[in-house]
Amino acid sequence: MTHQPHPAQTSPTTETRFQRGQRALAQIDGEAGQKVIDALANIAPDFARYLIEFPFGDIYTRPGLSLRDREIATIAALCTLGTAAPQLKVHIHAGLNVGITRDEITEILMQMAVYAGFPAALNGLFAAKDVFASRDETASNVATSNAYQAAK
What we know:
The protein is an all-alpha fold. It contains 7 helices and no strands. It has helices at residues 17-28, 30-40, 45-59, 67-81, 85-97, 102-116, 118-151. The longest helix has 34 residues, at 118-151. The N and C termini lie far apart (67 Å).
Protein backbone atom coordinates (compact mmCIF):
# COMPACT_ATOMS: atom_id res chain seq x y z
CA MET A 1 0.00 0.00 0.00
CA THR A 2 1.44 3.36 -0.97
CA HIS A 3 1.20 6.35 1.30
CA GLN A 4 -1.39 8.86 0.14
CA PRO A 5 -1.20 12.38 1.54
CA HIS A 6 -4.01 13.35 3.83
CA PRO A 7 -6.53 15.61 2.02
CA ALA A 8 -5.53 18.53 4.26
CA GLN A 9 -1.96 18.09 3.08
CA THR A 10 -2.82 18.74 -0.54
CA SER A 11 -4.13 21.92 -2.02
CA PRO A 12 -5.53 22.85 -5.40
CA THR A 13 -3.32 25.94 -5.23
CA THR A 14 -0.23 23.76 -4.63
CA GLU A 15 0.42 25.37 -1.29
CA THR A 16 3.62 23.86 0.13
CA ARG A 17 3.93 22.35 3.60
CA PHE A 18 5.97 25.39 4.58
CA GLN A 19 3.38 27.88 3.28
CA ARG A 20 0.55 25.94 4.90
CA GLY A 21 2.56 25.83 8.14
CA GLN A 22 3.29 29.56 8.06
CA ARG A 23 -0.40 30.29 7.60
CA ALA A 24 -1.37 27.97 10.47
CA LEU A 25 1.37 29.31 12.75
CA ALA A 26 0.20 32.89 12.20
CA GLN A 27 -3.43 31.94 12.81
CA ILE A 28 -2.79 29.85 15.91
CA ASP A 29 0.24 31.26 17.69
CA GLY A 30 0.44 34.70 16.14
CA GLU A 31 3.29 36.86 17.37
CA ALA A 32 4.36 34.37 20.07
CA GLY A 33 4.94 31.64 17.50
CA GLN A 34 6.85 33.93 15.18
CA LYS A 35 9.12 34.93 18.07
CA VAL A 36 10.08 31.27 18.51
CA ILE A 37 10.86 30.95 14.80
CA ASP A 38 12.85 34.20 14.83
CA ALA A 39 14.83 33.10 17.90
CA LEU A 40 15.99 30.00 16.04
CA ALA A 41 17.20 31.93 12.97
CA ASN A 42 20.79 32.33 14.10
CA ILE A 43 21.22 28.95 15.78
CA ALA A 44 19.04 26.39 13.97
CA PRO A 45 17.14 27.80 10.97
CA ASP A 46 16.51 24.28 9.67
CA PHE A 47 14.82 23.37 12.96
CA ALA A 48 12.60 26.45 12.62
CA ARG A 49 11.58 25.20 9.17
CA TYR A 50 10.82 21.73 10.60
CA LEU A 51 8.61 23.36 13.26
CA ILE A 52 6.68 25.20 10.60
CA GLU A 53 6.34 22.25 8.22
CA PHE A 54 5.56 19.30 10.50
CA PRO A 55 3.48 20.49 13.48
CA PHE A 56 1.78 23.38 11.70
CA GLY A 57 1.91 22.37 8.03
CA ASP A 58 1.02 18.71 8.54
CA ILE A 59 -0.62 18.13 11.94
CA TYR A 60 -2.52 21.31 12.86
CA THR A 61 -4.04 21.54 9.38
CA ARG A 62 -5.52 18.05 9.46
CA PRO A 63 -9.29 17.68 9.70
CA GLY A 64 -10.79 15.74 12.57
CA LEU A 65 -10.13 18.15 15.42
CA SER A 66 -10.75 21.86 15.60
CA LEU A 67 -7.86 24.19 16.37
CA ARG A 68 -9.52 24.78 19.72
CA ASP A 69 -9.52 21.04 20.49
CA ARG A 70 -5.90 20.73 19.35
CA GLU A 71 -4.85 23.55 21.67
CA ILE A 72 -6.70 22.01 24.63
CA ALA A 73 -4.72 18.81 24.06
CA THR A 74 -1.48 20.73 23.61
CA ILE A 75 -1.93 22.81 26.75
CA ALA A 76 -2.68 19.68 28.76
CA ALA A 77 0.30 17.79 27.32
CA LEU A 78 2.76 20.63 27.89
CA CYS A 79 1.52 21.09 31.44
CA THR A 80 2.00 17.42 32.23
CA LEU A 81 5.58 17.50 30.96
CA GLY A 82 6.46 19.93 33.72
CA THR A 83 9.56 21.01 31.79
CA ALA A 84 8.07 23.12 29.01
CA ALA A 85 6.99 26.42 30.59
CA PRO A 86 8.02 28.61 27.63
CA GLN A 87 6.19 26.37 25.17
CA LEU A 88 3.19 26.16 27.50
CA LYS A 89 2.99 29.97 27.55
CA VAL A 90 3.06 30.12 23.75
CA HIS A 91 0.22 27.60 23.60
CA ILE A 92 -1.82 29.34 26.28
CA HIS A 93 -1.64 32.42 24.05
CA ALA A 94 -2.62 30.18 21.13
CA GLY A 95 -5.53 28.73 23.08
CA LEU A 96 -6.85 32.21 23.73
CA ASN A 97 -6.35 33.03 20.04
CA VAL A 98 -8.53 30.09 18.97
CA GLY A 99 -11.37 30.67 21.43
CA ILE A 100 -10.49 28.89 24.67
CA THR A 101 -11.49 31.10 27.59
CA ARG A 102 -9.29 31.94 30.55
CA ASP A 103 -11.61 29.97 32.81
CA GLU A 104 -11.36 26.94 30.53
CA ILE A 105 -7.55 27.16 30.46
CA THR A 106 -7.53 27.35 34.26
CA GLU A 107 -9.77 24.27 34.45
CA ILE A 108 -7.58 22.35 31.97
CA LEU A 109 -4.52 23.09 34.10
CA MET A 110 -6.27 22.19 37.35
CA GLN A 111 -7.39 18.89 35.79
CA MET A 112 -3.72 18.07 35.18
CA ALA A 113 -3.14 17.87 38.96
CA VAL A 114 -4.96 14.53 38.84
CA TYR A 115 -2.67 13.05 36.17
CA ALA A 116 0.60 14.97 36.43
CA GLY A 117 0.59 16.04 40.08
CA PHE A 118 0.21 19.30 41.90
CA PRO A 119 3.66 20.69 40.99
CA ALA A 120 2.95 20.41 37.25
CA ALA A 121 -0.52 21.92 37.68
CA LEU A 122 0.87 24.75 39.82
CA ASN A 123 3.56 25.51 37.24
CA GLY A 124 0.89 25.50 34.53
CA LEU A 125 -1.34 27.84 36.50
CA PHE A 126 1.53 30.25 37.10
CA ALA A 127 2.36 30.16 33.37
CA ALA A 128 -1.28 31.00 32.63
CA LYS A 129 -1.22 33.80 35.19
CA ASP A 130 1.81 35.31 33.39
CA VAL A 131 0.13 35.01 29.98
CA PHE A 132 -3.12 36.54 31.21
CA ALA A 133 -1.22 39.46 32.80
CA SER A 134 0.79 39.98 29.61
CA ARG A 135 -2.36 40.08 27.51
CA ASP A 136 -4.04 42.46 29.95
CA GLU A 137 -1.01 44.76 29.81
CA THR A 138 -0.98 44.67 26.01
CA ALA A 139 -4.71 45.42 25.87
CA SER A 140 -4.26 48.30 28.32
CA ASN A 141 -1.39 49.73 26.25
CA VAL A 142 -3.48 49.52 23.07
CA ALA A 143 -6.44 51.20 24.77
CA THR A 144 -4.18 53.98 26.08
CA SER A 145 -2.62 54.46 22.65
CA ASN A 146 -6.05 54.55 20.98
CA ALA A 147 -7.31 57.10 23.52
CA TYR A 148 -4.22 59.23 22.93
CA GLN A 149 -4.70 59.08 19.15
CA ALA A 150 -8.39 59.98 19.49
CA ALA A 151 -7.53 62.98 21.69
CA LYS A 152 -5.18 64.44 19.08
